[in-house]
Design brief:
By secondary structure, this protein is an alpha/beta fold. It has helices at about 5-20, 20-35, 40-50, 65-70, 200-205; strands at about 55, 80, 100-105, 125, 150, 170-175, 195-200, 220-225. The protein has two domains: about 1-40, no CATH class; about 55-225, Leucine-rich repeat, LRR (right-handed beta-alpha superhelix) (Alpha-Beta Horseshoe). The protein contains five helices and eight strands; from the N terminus they run αααβαββββββαβ. Strand 7 (about 195-200), helix 5 (about 200-205) and strand 8 (about 220-225) form a beta-alpha-beta unit. The chain is elongated, with a radius of gyration of 20 Å.
Length: about 230
């Protein structure tokens, strides 16, 4: 039998931690200890998020904490906002913030939401305004509690089919995505969707035929951001 590398075992341990199961967490710590696996890379990934974030409620002094002192307090974090920094990809360790209800990632040069977001089963609101996201991960369909998705001012080319699985989604903002010219026919059939915001310039003020028939419960609005100075 081939020997499992330390890197492979570290990835396995990460998945055990991300499971949210307390028994799995304890077992992961035991496996790491018995195999002399350094958990510092995971702790550093979490700290990289904390160091650039505004979080609520605030945590105490985490700067010198090891993973064993980080993993449980993270359950208290309900809101996370990242601005005024450069972050092309959301670190996978975002999945450790399991009780997050709100994430705001504004103007940070984000290109990829990463793999960790799929573990945020309690997320209700996700905003990635003013970034460079071209594609959403298919795993976004696992955010079953998501009600608001703000994708304003990105570089989206298409929407993933897994978006159909967001049965509680009420607000979807797609304005200022100049390459998102083809919308899927199922978009208006999202069962809870109440407001869809499109860019008047992209669709020339005309609702795409593919969206018809439009349910009476859905409002389609146009948005065009005006320049600050004329």
């Amino acid at each position: 039998m081939a020997k499992v590398s330390a890197d492979d075992l570290l990835e396995k341990l990460k998945l055990m931690f991300l499971s949210g199961d307390s028994h799995q967490t304890e077992l992961a710590f035991m496996l790491a200890d018995s195999n002399e696996i350094d958990l510092k890379p995971i702790a550093d990934g979490i700290k990289s998020i904390l160091s650039v974030s505004e979080i609520k409620p605030r945590l105490g002094d985490w700067t010198n904490a090891g993973l064993e002192n980080l993993i449980y307090p993270l359950n208290m974090v309900l809101t996370l906002c990242i601005e005024d920094c450069e972050m092309k990809q959301l670190p996978a360790e975002i999945g450790f913030f399991r009780n997050l209800g709100i994430i705001e990632l504004h103007g940070i040069g984000l290109e990829n939401l990463g793999s960790g977001i799929q573990y945020l089963s309690k997320l209700r609101s996700l905003s990635t305004k003013n970034n460079r996201v071209e594609y959403l991960p298919e795993s976004i369909g696992q955010l079953k509690k998501l009600r608001s998705l703000n994708l304003h001012d990105n570089l989206l080319k298409k929407l993933p089919d897994s978006l159909q699985e967001l049965e509680e989604l009420e607000l979807l903002q797609l304005s200022k995505n100049p390459e998102l010219t083809d919308l899927p026919s199922w978009l208006c059939r999202l069962p809870s969707l109440k407001k869809l915001i499109l860019d008047v310039a992209v669709f020339k003020g005309k609702i795409p035929e593919v969206l018809y028939p439009i349910p009476e419960t859905l409002t389609i609005e146009w948005e065009q951001i005006q320049p600050k100075f004329k």
